Amino acid sequence: MAHTHPRFAWFNGRLVPWEEARIHIYSPAVKYGAGVFEGLRGYWNDGQREMFVFRLREHLERLAFGIKVMRFDVTPDLGQLERAVIEVVRANEFRDGVHIRLSALLDGDGEMYSVGPVTFCCTANTRPPTKALTEGLAAGVVSWRRPEDAALPMRVKANANYQNGRMAVHEAKANGYGAAILLNNIGKVAEGPGMCLFMVRGGVAVTPSITSGILESITRDAVIRLLRDELGVTVEERDVDRSELYAADEAFFCGTAWEVTPITSVDRLPVGDGKVGSLTKRLQALYFAVAKGESALHSEWRTPVYGAASARAAE
Ligand code: PMP
Which of 52, 135, 170, 296 sits at 20 to 30 Å (Cα–Cα) from 25? Predict the structure, then answer.
C-alpha cells in the first residue's frame, strides 16, 4: 500500500518536495545521532478556522539550548525557524491537528570533532487522537534506567538520547504494557520515553523534579501552571518512589505528543480505582481548551498559523 505523506518539508531555508529533504548517510547525524530536535503540535480550531502552534517560542528556545550544549558551530535564527514551522503547516494546507518536528542535524562528512555544517529542517503531519486519551493506559516500570546527567544530559533533546527511550518502549511492549516508565540512576521515578509523569496523592499533584534525569518538558510546565493557577491544586516537584505510584489516587503522562494521557495501572496494579482520575479529566479538558484556543487563557502560548498575526510573524 502506498504510504501517504505530506507534500512539502522545510529544508535549510526553503520548502522542498517531501522526497528531497535528505541528509547524507555519512553524516554525524546518521552515524552518532548528532542532532537535536523538537516535537510540537498545532491545534486546529474549527470555529475560528485557525491553527494554533502550542508554545512555539519555548520550543525554539529549547532547540537553541540543545545546539549550544551539543557545541554545534551555528547560531540558530529563531525568527527563521519560527517562519519554517508556520510555512510548513501552511504549505501543506493542514486543517486538522498536526505534529511538527523541527531538527538541527549535524551534516557533512566529519567525525566526533565535527561541529558543522548544521542542517535545519521541519516537517508536519496530521496525528489522530489516541484511544488512551479517554481510556487511559497500563504503564509498566522497565529495567532500563535514564542515564544520569554525568553520562548524557537528558535535558537536551538530542537524537541519540532516544536510544534509551527506544529500549524502554520495546521492553514495555514485550511485557504487554501500553507505555514505559523509567527510573533514574538512583532508582527514583524519572519519566516515560517521550513524556513526563505526574501522580495525584491526597489531592496533591506530584511530579519528579527537573534534576531527576528528565527532559525539561514544556507541557509539564504548562500542566504545573494550569493545576496551580486555574485548578487550585498544590503541585510538588520532588523525588518520587516507584511504590508511591502504587499508592497514588491518579496518575498521568504529559508531553507534546502525549498531551495529558491518563495512567490507569502501573505494573499491573490499579492506580486508585483503576479508572481515569477525575482531576486528570478536568486537567485534560482544560489543557485542550487552552491549546486549541477555546479558552482565552494563556493566549501567549498560541501562535496562529493562518491568521493576520502569523502573517506578520512571517514577514
Ligand atoms: N520527556 C521526554 C524524554 C520527551 O522526549 C518529551 C517530548 N519532547 C517529553 C518528556 C515532553 O516534553 P514536551 O512537553 O516539551 O514535549
Answer: 170
Q: Is the CB of 219 under 6 A from ligand 1?
A: yes
Cell 501517504 identifies what position? 4
Of 83, 98, 126, the residue that ends a domain is 126
27, part of any domain:
yes
User: What is the residue range of 147's domain?
Assistant: 132-276
Which residue's alpha carbon is at the smallest distance from atom 12 of ligand 1? 217
83 in a domain, yes or no?
yes
Residues serving a catalytic function are 157
Domain at 251, CATH number: 3.20.10.10
Count structural domains, the chain: 2
Expressed in angstroms and rounded, the spacing between residue 157 Cα and the centre of ligand 1 is 8
pLDDT digits (tens, 9 = 90+) for 81-122: 999 999 999 999 999 999 999 999 999 999 999 999 999 999
Res. 4 pLDDT band, cuts 50 70 90: confident
User: Is the pLDDT reported for residue 179 higher than 60?
Assistant: yes
**Same domain for 219 and 248?**
yes
Q: What does the pLDDT look like over 17-37, one tens digit per residue?
A: 999 999 999 999 999 999 999
C-beta of residue 160 within 8 angstroms of C-beta of residue 32: yes
Q: Do 207 and 260 fall into the same domain?
A: yes
224 lines ligand 1 (CB under 6 A): no
State the closest ligand 1 atom to the C-alpha of 39, by its place in the atom list counted from 1: 8
**Ligand 1 neighbourhood includes 213 CB (under 6 angstroms):** no
| Tens-place pLDDT, residues 51-90 | 999 999 999 999 999 999 999 999 999 999 999 999 999 9
**From CA 220, how far away is CA 165, in angstroms rounded?**
18
Let me know if residue 151 belongs to a domain: yes
> Whose grid coordinates read 535549510?
12
Residue 180 lies in a domain: yes
Tell me, yes or no, whether 257 and 146 share the same domain.
Answer: yes
Q: Which of 106-115 are b and which e, b meaning 16 or more Cβ less than 10 Å from the residue's Cβ?
A: bbbebeeebe
